[in-house]
TrEMBL record:
<keyword id="KW-0560">Oxidoreductase</keyword>
<keyword id="KW-0521">NADP</keyword>
<comment type="similarity">
    <text>Belongs to the shaker potassium channel beta subunit family.</text>
</comment>
<dbReference type="InterPro" id="IPR005399">
    <property type="entry name" value="K_chnl_volt-dep_bsu_KCNAB-rel"/>
</dbReference>
<dbReference type="Pfam" id="PF00248">
    <property type="entry name" value="Aldo_ket_red"/>
</dbReference>
<protein>
    <submittedName>
        <fullName>Aldo/keto reductase family protein</fullName>
    </submittedName>
</protein>
<dbReference type="InterPro" id="IPR036812">
    <property type="entry name" value="NAD(P)_OxRdtase_dom_sf"/>
</dbReference>
<dbReference type="GO" id="GO:0016491">
    <property type="term" value="F:oxidoreductase activity"/>
</dbReference>
<dbReference type="InterPro" id="IPR023210">
    <property type="entry name" value="NADP_OxRdtase_dom"/>
</dbReference>
<dbReference type="GO" id="GO:0005829">
    <property type="term" value="C:cytosol"/>
</dbReference>
<feature type="region of interest" description="Disordered">
    <location>
        <begin position="215"/>
        <end position="236"/>
    </location>
</feature>
<feature type="domain" description="NADP-dependent oxidoreductase">
    <location>
        <begin position="15"/>
        <end position="315"/>
    </location>
</feature>
Amino acid sequence: MEFRHLGRSGLKISEIAYGNWLTHGSQVEEDAAHACVRAALDEGITTFDTADVYAGTRAEAVLGRALEGQRREGLEIFTKVYWPTGPGQNDRGLSRKHIMESIDASLRRLQTDYVDLYQAHRFDYETPLEETLRAFDDVVRQGKALYIGVSEWRAEEIAQALKIADEMGFDRIISSQPQYSMLWRVIEEEVVPLSEKEGIGQIVWSPIAQGVLTGKYKPGQPPPAGSRATDDKGGSDMVSRWLQDDVLTRVQQLEPIAADLGLSMAQLAVAWVLQNPNVSAAIVGASRPEQVRDNVKAAGVTLDADVMKRIDDVIAPVVTRDPGKTASPRKRP
């Protein structure tokens, strides 16, 4: 496993991170989830990403049990706050009330005294940003989180938060967690340049485009049984935008490139996002241990300029770069 600094912070994280959005507590049974976490640990992954909302808070609890007995100092545990976790009007958003209550609940479920990174899961347009940042700063001062990050914030939102933090003496954001893949490159225009300037690292999710870049979805054919496209627990709506014959045909043309490098399609996709120097880690999920072992082989892979050009020549006509300037579809994770 290779390790990278998270932005310009001193925190080092495994460049392959394990995430449990659509698996723990939802898509797979707990024994299988524990087996995937053990496989991740065996392969050298030390960074684990979750969120309070995943599987209605169950994902955090499953991850906490799966990591029980591990040396805490050897792990980097990330979670998030924003989406509703209860029926009340204050069970959502980035108000001080919700942040302070949510961090305590997350720590209980994760069975830990602190998280390494606490992330704002979306931007809250209904709460003053100063209130949100002060609450996050207090979470850090209380030792409940070591660093603060954001997920799916626009460049202008990140810039506004950095300005306020500097003016008020708060801890600065050190990470951004956006969607990023060969097919979805929205962050490249504005988020990445700002982040490079300000010392923010990207922890990217869906580097395999919800499984589409594995090549398992074929043009003109129905999705394989049991795949994310047939999942009714949150995955099918995310993957559906890629299930168009022009996209799938282009993806199939990546297979010879992967084969020439001795990589699987998934490994090529994960390695591709890691070529971006602003990416600190790529999050991979898994419902089976062998998926973890396959994806982790992308760590340390270097794709030379000729390979990157071959990939672009194939995939460029179907790449999404600027869907209305939004960081990503306003959905989970």
